[in-house]
């Protein structure tokens, strides 16, 4: 059987890096993309991982990385749109650049990658996009995360709607919905909207900052369970369009789907009073 190739964005840390290593160990070819390949020291140890420079906001770089990966491995079978970052804080206090960056990386990023990959998938007669979303793509869960929430809701809409135009081309779409997990740089990399001159949000800001910085390990999922969910889709073991990973997320999304929205909003808000 032909060796399969997976193309992953954001492999410098966290889920992207773990996924790259997992597929390398499964014997796949791995096109591991990242903004700063010159800093990478772990993925370079694997013969079947090739590293390509790719910032998801840079269409030319994506185009080069896709062409170089196809030249190196012959074709791409699965793409994981993993690169992403969070932003937290009151919308009123967000810098214009933070709003743009949140949209550029989490929404325009997957759009850019999908558009550059599609000619190759069409030429190859098919392929699969696995988009890394979040519990926050399916529901809201806390105050001061409106921009991040918006970006993942957008990714959900994009992915679901693309089904109708790609299905007939044998191009499959999947969404992975996870929550906080161990061993990534997500909170350190997040952009924070803080402005001490406006005090109206201080109490909420303090609560959210404390909550995010002090999440105990038992509130965080094992990242391997997320990698396993990605692998189940890529290998064809599962054909589930959305995979929700983590018990807390399943409970939260279950609640969202089982009560009127007014009751859900009040329940979540009451956790932060
Ligand atoms: N950890 C969580 O709490 C959580 C929960 C739900 C969903 N997620 C989602 O899971 C995915 C992976 O996040 P993670 O938890 O593994 O966090 P992470 O360790 O911060 O990884 C994020 C990756 O995205 C990359 N990235 C950021 N901006 C980029 C850009 N413009 N172009 C290309 N790559 C870029 C980062 O690269 P650099 O090193 O260059 O910055 C890094 O490799 C994200 O889509 C995130 O939204 C995370």
Q: How is this structure best described in words?
A:
There is one protein chain. With 273 residues, the chain is an alpha/beta fold. The protein has one domain: NAD(P)-binding Rossmann-like Domain (Rossmann fold, 3-Layer(aba) Sandwich), CATH 3.40.50.720. It contains ten helices and nine strands. The chain has helices at residues 14-26, 59-73, 96-124, 135-138, 146-166, 186-189, 202-213, 223-234, 247-258, 261-270; strands spanning 5-8, 29-34, 49-53, 78-81, 87-88, 127-132, 171-177, 191-192, 242-244. The protein has a seven-stranded parallel β-sheet with strand order 3-2-1-4-6-7-9, with helices on both faces. A two-stranded parallel ribbon has the order 5-8. Strand 1, helix 1 (14-26) and strand 2 form a beta-alpha-beta unit. Helix 2 (59-73) runs parallel beside helix 3 and helix 3 (96-124) runs parallel beside helix 5. The radius of gyration is 19 Å and the shape is globular. The N and C termini lie far apart (57 Å). 39% of the residues are buried. Residues 9-10, 12-16, 34-36, 55-57, 82-85, 105, 132, 134, 178-181, 184-186, 189 line the site of NADP nicotinamide-adenine-dinucleotide phosphate (NAP).
Topology:
Elements (H helix, E strand, L loop, with lengths): L4 E4 L5 H13 L2 E6 L14 E5 L5 H15 L4 E4 L5 E2 L7 H29 L2 E6 L2 H4 L7 H21 L4 E7 L8 H4 L1 E2 L9 H12 L9 H12 L7 E3 L2 H12 L2 H10 L3
Parallel strand pairs: 1-2, 1-4, 2-3, 4-6, 5-8, 6-7, 7-9
Helix pairs in contact: 1-8, 2-3, 3-5
